[in-house]
Amino acid sequence: MTNLEALVLVVTHYFKGLICMAHYDYDLVIVGGGPGGLAAAIYGARSKLSTVVIEKNRPGGQIATTAEWENYPGSPHASGPSEMEVWVEHAKQFGAEFIKDEITSISVQGDTRVVSGLEHTYNAKAIILAPGAQPRELGVPGERKFRGKGVSYCATCDADFFTELDIIVVGSGDSAIEEGMYLTKFAETVTVIVLHDEGTLDCTPVLRERAFNNPKMKWIWNSTIAEITGDGIVEGVVLKNIKSGELTPMETNGVFMFVGMVPQTEWLKGVIAMDGRGYIEANEICETNLDGVYAIGDCRQKFLRQVITAAADGAIAATAAEKFIHEEEGFAEMVLHQKIPVVVAFWNPTRPESMDMNVALEKLLEPYGSAVKLVKIDTYRNLRISKKCAISEIPAVVIYKDGAIVARWDGVVDLAQVEQTLK
């Protein structure tokens, strides 16, 4: 290596290091560009939040691998890839940015939420996690090649494409048997490939009984799939008997895999609360255990994992995040960053006594002029701030000095004590 080449290499690594250490500031950082993340981007950017979607692959998620998509309202003949392109453009029209990066961790540092990637670090006022979940694959030849072309992981998405055809279901748990029975509404026959001995399934007894009584369901025991074959689309499989090792070709028009889902949340363990399977625990507005961090789509605990529910999650979380940011910034500006004492009165229009308390406080503080600030917070409209301040009874009065609570009254407010505290 010449001296010039060595110098070029050093300079290149130097500037690459500077780029990798770059920090970017946003109101809303969305980790994951599937349907949930894209819906959140549309709602976030449209609310005038500076919004970025960070995705390690192409945006679109699992549905972008589905050639045809029929069960989304208003789009009866949509193509997964083309539909997701429209969603991306929709988000960009409102100003959402898209960055390709792989996120490795998140943390909360004071009022800032830090999202760390392999390429950059992103500071956010709120985070929406949408890393998704992937169907567990068998990893057999032909599985990925024919995904969306006869290999499916979702009966409700693709069942109609197999009307009056012969198909295979792989798996014997609750999901496999439930989806298999659903498929019998469309297919001519549904053959279930089961690892266990004859009569043994991993599903509940009720499902087992129903499945065995379904005339369209057939069974192949002690077997798995060794290969999926076809020319452009699925035309058959090679079955392997796990006891004898014997390989047997079998014609089929489709293969439905139901051997489990894998939420892409391993990198969040120890930071975000999850269940035993790795799904994120989030409430009805998609809040996680971390303030200002939301989880949406297939990565979170939920009843139905579909594009429509992911999109709904995204809309809900982005709206909740916008309200979170607005409330946090408003409270900080009106209360925490004030150089003078601040009397915060928590009230509710359904509680007349709390409105009377506001009037009494206004009269009490009138002589103080600009030396004391009165802030009135409607607990009905500001649930987060009320929760943050641990308000359990109305009326309530909390006094702040230099951003810290120095006194509070819940339920019964003693105006004389309020005045004494301010002296």
Task: Tell me what you see in this structure.
This protein has 10 helices and 21 strands. The protein is α/β, with parallel strands linked by helices. Helix 2 packs parallel to helix 3 (80-93) and helix 2 packs parallel to helix 7. It is elongated. The relative contact order is 0.12. Mean pLDDT is 91; it is low at 14-20.
What is the percentage of strand-forming residues?
25-35%
What is the SS-derived class? alpha/beta
Low-confidence stretches: 14-20
DSSP E strands, number: 21
Shape: elongated
Tell me the number of helical segments per DSSP (H or I, 4 or more residues long).
Answer: 10
Strand count, sense and closure of the main sheet?
7 strands, mixed
What are the key terms here?
single chain; 423 residues; alpha/beta; 7-stranded mixed sheet; 5-stranded parallel sheet; 10 helices; 27% strand
In brief:
The chain is an alpha/beta fold and 423 residues long. Helix content is 29%, strand content 27%. Strands 1, 2, 3, 4, 5, 6 and 17 form a seven-stranded mixed β-sheet that branches. Strands 8-15-9-10-11 form a five-stranded parallel β-sheet, with helices on one face.
